[in-house]
Amino acid sequence: xxxxxxxxxxxxLAICESLLLALNDRNIxxxxxxxxxxxxxxxAHSNDTGADGxxxxxxxxxxxxxxxxxxxxxxxxx
Length: 78
Prior knowledge:
Layout: H1 7-25, H2 31-46, H3 55-71
Helix pairs in contact: 2-3
């Protein structure tokens, strides 16, 4: 039987993506603002010094967020 990893993180990501889509669909935040939020989040992890011993984690988080931006998962392209 395989072990399921990072259920809370996966749930948080799904919820955040849904919230970003809803904010855009309701015209609360425009696409460029949502992309700015994602870029800021990615930059925070990209620029992390790794002093906490989690450099690989920060790199992986930044890569994932940048992949979301490139994939267009966070906004519905109109």
